[in-house]
Write a structure and sequence with these properties.
Layout lengths: L2 H14 L3 H13 L4 H21 L5 H18 L5 H5 L3 E7 L6 H12 L3 E9 L1 H11 L3 E5 L7 H12 L7 E5 L5 H7 L3 E3 L2 H19 L1
Parallel strand pairs: 1-2, 1-3, 3-4, 4-5
Helix pairs in contact: 1-2, 1-3, 1-4, 2-4, 3-4, 6-10, 7-8
């Protein structure tokens, strides 16, 4: 393992170990050694947060641990983000994200937001209890690439379907990729409502978003 690879591993470990001070120190070291900031974020901090997300899915970590991991990740991000190359700032694909109307549970949404932000997306967070039309309006205003919808309640799932219907009725469906997630959501539901993808957790949401952006770019070409 090279010294740089070892540094990335240490950054990842600092996030998993909820060590905010250590994450900041390692980020400073990466800057001092001229390590590419985006790679340090991706292979270090984001990698660690994905590991923490997996531990959460396996019920080894719970919400308090996950939030402490995110604090450690943000400590590193605060140091590394100013050193991203200009093109990395200007070409971020935009994602509009929120919890659908009738639901105020936003911990899962917040984790996906953290992961997307750290993975190079510009995230427009609408918050929770968001009416379907507000998602459409925000996506149009921001010229977003993706609309990400979350809910933890079966009673509000149809709000996701309504977002897709509104996009279709306005002739806007081809402009945006729609991804859905949350406790009661499944791939079968995503397929039924015409969404472009479903993710079961935050780490998969990042992978899905990257695939959707790549697909929309190739379609445009």
């Amino acid at each position: 393992m090279s010294d740089t690879d070892a540094l990335f591993q240490e950054l990842s470990d600092a996030v998993v170990e909820m060590d905010e001070v250590r994450a900041g120190e390692l980020a400073q070291r990466a800057v001092a050694e001229g390590v590419d900031a985006y790679t340090a974020i991706d292979r270090g901090l984001v990698h660690g947060m994905m590991r923490a997300s997996q531990l959460f899915e396996e019920e080894d970590y719970f919400i308090p641990e996950l939030l402490l991991c995110s604090d450690a990740m943000y400590a590193g991000l605060a140091i590394l983000q100013p050193h991203l190359r200009r093109d990395e700032h200007s070409q971020k694909p935009k994602v509009v994200i929120g919890v659908v109307e009738g639901d105020t549970h936003d911990i899962g949404k917040n984790l996906v937001k953290i992961m997307l932000d750290a993975s190079g997306f510009e995230v427009i967070d609408l918050g929770r209890d968001i009416p379907p039309q507000a998602f459409v309006d925000a996506a149009v205003a921001a010229e977003a690439r993706i609309v990400a919808l979350s809910t933890l309640m079966t009673t509000t799932m149809e709000g996701m379907a309504e977002v897709v219907r509104l996009l279709e009725s306005a002739g806007l469906r081809d402009r945006f990729k729609v991804m859905v997630g949350g406790g009661p959501i499944s791939q079968a539901f995503a397929t039924r409502i015409g969404a472009d993808g479903y993710s079961a957790n935050a780490a998969e949401a990042v992978r899905l978003a990257k695939r959707l952006v790549a697909t929309s770019s190739s379609d445009a070409a």
